[in-house]
Structures are given as structure tokens and as C-alpha cells.
Model the fold of this input.
Amino acid sequence: MTHPSDTGPAPVLALRDISKSFGAVRALRDVSLELHPGEVHALAGENGAGKSTLIKTLAGVHRPDAGQVLLDGAPVVFHGPGDARDAGIAVIYQEPTLFPDLSIAENIFMGRRPRRSLGRIDHRATREATAALMKRLGVALDPDRPARGLSIADQQIVEIAKALSFDARVLIMDEPTAALTGSEVARLFGVVRALRDQGAAVLFISHRLEEIFEICGRVTTLRDGAWISTEPVAGMTEDDLVRRMVGRDLDELYPKQDVKPGGIALSVRRLTREGVFTDVSFDVRRGEIVGLAGLVGAGRTEVARAVFGIDRWDAGEVEVDGRKLTNGAPSTAMAAGLALVPEDRRAQGLVMDMSIERNIGLTGLRTTRRAGLMDRRAERSRSLDWAVKLHVKYVRIADTVSTLSGGNQQKVVLAKWLATGPEVLIVDEPTRGIDVGTKAEVHRLLSRLAADGVAVLMISSDLPEILGMADRVLVMHEGRLTAEIPRSDATEETVMAAATGRTAA
Amino acid sequence: MPESASPARRAVRWDTVVGALLVVVLLLSFTTVDGFGNALNLSFLIGNTLPIALIALPMTLLVVAGEIDLSVASTAGLSGAVMGALWNQGMAIEAIIPVCLLIGVVCGLVNGLLVTRLGLPSLAVTIGTLAAYRGIAQIVLGSDAVTDFPVPYLDFAAGRIGDTFVPYAFVPFLVLLAVAVVALHATPFGRSLFAVGASEEAARFAGIRVKRQKLILFTLTGLMSALTGVFWALHYASARYDNATGLELSVVAAVLLGGIDFDGGKGTLGGAIAGVFLLGALQNVMSLRDVSAQSQIVVTGVLLVLSVLGPRVARQIAVARAGRRAAAAPPPASRTPSPTP
Done:
């Protein structure tokens, strides 16, 4: 693990011994990084390792406390994102921000469209320039098509095209694949390869390790704000990479304990919501982790929402511990011992502007009261208790949850629900977008909960997670349950066959 | 550049600012405005501000929960009109008042049901009912002015305790204020309102019965508006269909001035009430200085805009300061990329 030496062409962009602190927190310590033209360079590290700070330093959002940013070998200072953009550095974020009602071409040339005489907008030139960009990227997107309705992958491609229209030579992609499906990832990667072959330097951030191995040439690892290694991806294994990121061997990513299942805790019978899912029946027993797999849009999340009462169902029934739940009433579902950790932690799991304490407290409003009034001491001790149990990393319990990293936010959502002492826990994409270390923690937690007799229903698009954690796998396809596969028979092939509607297992 | 990025120096809360501003305005008025400081004028100030204050109580809760009710003044007007019409027909005042309150409940329920069942935005719904309730008031009472209510009631609504500055009606208001403060800041119900206002979806996922709560709030607002309508008719000894016209402007201005975030989820009742009395004091001073009623409305409107703007500007200044602090680190000397054309 030596420091990167110059290989091939000179770096287009380099960081040399960059340090950056926020108050007492040293986000980056003497970090160096070189991006060469024509390479896809991975940036790996757990949440909080300093990746975001490094990206923001490259993008001109943060100014380093010490160290240099070198552009084509010459030191530069970015006074703001505009400077970085003018220097040919573009950042593509996880969630693109296009104007839905404008066309692709209008989005790309927003505010600087080619003009004809008298200041009239030259629509044809705009369209042609857009078509040329699309051709460079090797994709067939109609410049006149409105951005509304584009898949997230295509929206990102539009963002990339926009970056190219600014003559970007360095593309920073911050978890671009987090919200993409498999085929969308392939489409995006096609574009990334085209860019690379045209000599662009790409810095690629992803929590999906397999993607790093698929598309990146070299990988730089950060841990706790410090540079750990920069090395070619070829010859490394996933375990090697995880060890660099975590600094130790990960005990195990899927620490599933064997538990003898108990009685039925959750029973779903012939549940139907018209046009969304049909005739869904299944049970989850105490001590069991049941995986719910399927493609995005198969209706898994919708079933969970209906079971918990967020949406109403049209037919069927749900029982928790033999008690029938009221249709469309989350409060009665909670009272019956049901908990749902939703798919979108920022919009559904947390009130982002509220403190950690009060977010956890929200599920305890019925219990942390005395004579009808809030019992603030009880609320605080309940929240502190669970924040500590789940190892949430925070400065003050009264800080807003928006100050936490994604993984820690997810832990707060889990804390909020575990504090209710649920009999049945439904988790929807429990580890999406969180780092490996936290992921293993969440898995350990789910396993321990099951061992303690909680019935767990786990919705996940992460197939290794389903296979690694579930005692049984339920598979949905187009709104119906198409298969129930015991752990012993569950493989990527059997699950995917059922998920895509080929012969059920 | 000191490294202590001011963990101790936290942003001054807006409601504290408004409270301080109220004190300053009162002190200035005491010393510079003739006729302000005597007990009689102060009792007028309080009495004239009470309608705003009464409606501001439920309005604060409503805005914290992310909704608004602009029909409050029309509901008050309708309540007063019904009171006058029934009195003209010879009904006993003790029977009339409960009827008026009930009408307020119905008005509030209608608003609440339109918002929660049909999912309509409250701003639009209550602009509609603002017009509708006022129209009904006119149908009910026509252009009559009913003034001959029983003297003890008129005395209670307009009088003050002995020679003090305290109107009788201020006492029950203080009780209602205490109830509202406890409800918003010390009960699970109040706590959940902040969650609803900050993120309705997350509140729903936490098992909070969002629709039910909003319905309760709209109904309470209707009830308090009707109560205010009764108070208004007695206080000014005049029940007319156009009583309290435009009062919603003052209520919303005062509540926002008091630091209740228009987008929901933030604010304190203390701040809102400070905003109410700040507005009341300004109106009183303007009246003493013979500022016309029209000009007073202009001032209220400007205050409304400033009260929405103020906290935002304050926040932006804070952000900009933090940004400058972050950027103030010694830059490694070097060239700056020249902007490409």
C-alpha cells in the first residue's frame, strides 16, 4: 500500500496533503489523491470516513485548511462551486435535479441557450448540440423529450451531458447508483465507460462493492478522515477492500443465527389493493426472518404500507398475534405490536428538522406521559437508552437528525421503532445507502431481535442480503406472491426466476 | 481565526427577539406617546387586542401543524350576526351564546373536513369559506346593527377591573392562554403537531393520526372564532354582519410575526402572543397619533411581509456567517482559475 506514484499521463486533478476540520472534528487529515485522464477511480470508505468532505473540497464547496488542490499540476484555489465548474470539474449527485416540464435540451442549456438575432432562442441549435452530446455518450435520448418520466438513470445521463456541455474533464459521481435498478446501472456504466475512453477522469463513489470492481481501475480508501491506500482494483478481493475500509476483518456481514421459529405473529390473508397487489397471503413466525424479494415495483413496499395501515386495503385481513388490525390505521397497528421501518428514511422514517431525542420520542408519545402531559425525563431516557444501544454516533441527543450520516440516521429510525418493543418488525430496504460497517451492525441487530422472539419481515432489493439473512424468502412479481423458498433452496437463480415471473420455485 | 466555531454562541431565537421588541415598543410608548401610559388607555389596548389574541391561540396550533384558516374573521362575523338576529327574535342571551359557539364548531368542521377528507389546501378552502361565511352572515342579519344587548354582558365585555388597566375579559383569556400553552408545549398532542407540521409523511409513519388532529384544530379554531364574534359584538355593543372584517389579516400577521413558521413545525405560543400584543400596541399608538385606519392596515400588511421575511433573512445571515468562518481559513496562495467565457 504505497502512496500513488505517477503512472501514465499526468494527473488532471490532484489533492495534496489536504486537511479540513469542522470545529473539533477533523474530517480530512493529510489526504492525497490523483485523478488521471481516462481512469475511473473509486473512492471507498465507511460513512463518516471523509468522502463527502473530499468531494466538496474538489467541487469548491469547502476550502481546505491545509494542503493544495492541483489542476494540471498547478495549484488552484476554488472560491466556490462556480470556480470548480469553470475549471472543468462536475459533480453528479445521487438525485438529479432537473426541471420536469422542460425538455432534455432545455435542461442541459438552461440559462445559456444558443441565440439567434434579436435575442431569440435558437431551438434548432439547442437541439443539435444536445443530440451531439447524446451521441458522444452513446445513448439514444430524444432532446425534445420532457425530463418528466425519465428514469433516474436517464436523468443522471442528462446531468452528465450537462456537465459535458460545460467542458467537464473531471466527473465526480456521488453514489449515482443508489436508486438504480440493475439494468439502469448497466446503462449508466455504458456512459461512464464511453467518457473514460474519451479521456475524462471519473471519481466514483458507491457503497456497492461489486460496482467498484466492475467499473473502476483504481481505488482510494479513506478511514476516519485519513488516506489508507490507493491501488489497482485488479487483484483485490471484496474482503481486501472491506478490510481497508473498516480497519479490521468484518466479523461477518450476514451473522444469521439459527432460531427455532415459534408461533405465528403476523398473518396476512388474501390481502388485495386494487391495481397494486392481489391476493397476498403469508405468515411470519416469532424468531423468523422472512425475506420479501422482487423487482422494484413488484408491490413489496405497497404490501408493507397496507399491513401497517398507511394505505387502505380493499380486501383481505391482517392479524398480529391473533388480533385483527383495523384497515388504514397505523396507530392501532402500533398498539398491536407492529413496527415499520420505511423505505425512505429522510421523508418517511424521520422528521429531519427534529432532534434525535424527539424523533425517537415520536413513537413513545403514548407511553412517555404522566397525567396527560409529556414526561420529558422519561422521553429523554428512553431516547438516550436506544440511541446508545444501537451505537448511534452523535454529539448531542438534542441535535437535529439532519446532522447525522445516513447510516446513523437509519439507526435512529431503528431505535425509534425498537423502543416500542415490537412483536413484529417490518424493515423496508434496511441497509440501502449505508456503509458496510453499519450494514453488518444492522444485520447483527436483526438477527438478535429474531433470536429474542421478534418476527421480522425484511424487504430488500439486495439479493445477497436476502439470501444471507432470511430463513424463508417470499418473492413477489407484478403484485402477486409467486414463490416461497426455504433458506436451503434459496439461491440467486431461484429467487430471480420467481421475481421475473419465470417458473415459480 | 479562532478555532472555537462558537458552540456556546447559538442563534438568538426569533420569539425572544419579538418579546424584546414588545418591551422596547412599550417602553418607548410609555415615555414618548402622550396618553399611552394611563390605565384606561392600556385597558383599551388590551381589550381591542383580545379578539386577535383569542383567535391567535388556535391559529398558532394550526400553523404549527402546517395549515391555516383565513375564514376566522368571517366565522366571528357570522357568530355575531346570528347573535343579533336571535336577540331580535327575543331569544335569551344565555341560549344564544351556545348556539353561536355551535355555529363556530360547524364552520370549523366544514373547513376541516374539506381539508382532511378531500385533501384540499387549507389556504384555498378557507379563502372560499371566508367569502361564504361572510355572505351567510349578511343573509342572516342584513344591514341591521343590533346594539341593545343586556347591560351586564356589555359591561363585562367592555369594562375593566376597578381602575386598573385589566379588562374583565382579560382574565378568562389568560386561562385560555395557559391551556393553549400547555396543550402545545407540554402534551403529546402538541408535540405531535410539530412533527405533523415539519413532515406530515413522517408523522403518519410514526402512527400519528394526522387527519384527526387537523380536524380537531380546525374545529377548535371555528369555536374560538365564534367566541371572538360574541365578544366583539358585546365589546363594541354592536352586532353587524361585517363585524371583524379583515381580522384574519391581523391574526396571521401577529402569529407569523411571533415566529411561527408559515411552513409549519416551528414556533412557540409565547412568541405568537408577543407578536399579537406587539401588533396591538402599534395599532394603539397609531390611533393615539391619529393615524388613519387605512394606514394602519397598510402597516399591518407590511408587518406581515416583514414577519415572513425577518426570520428567513436572519437564518440566511447566520448561514452566510458560518460560510465566511469556514472560508476564512488561510488559503494556500496560488492562482485562481479564470472564468471561461
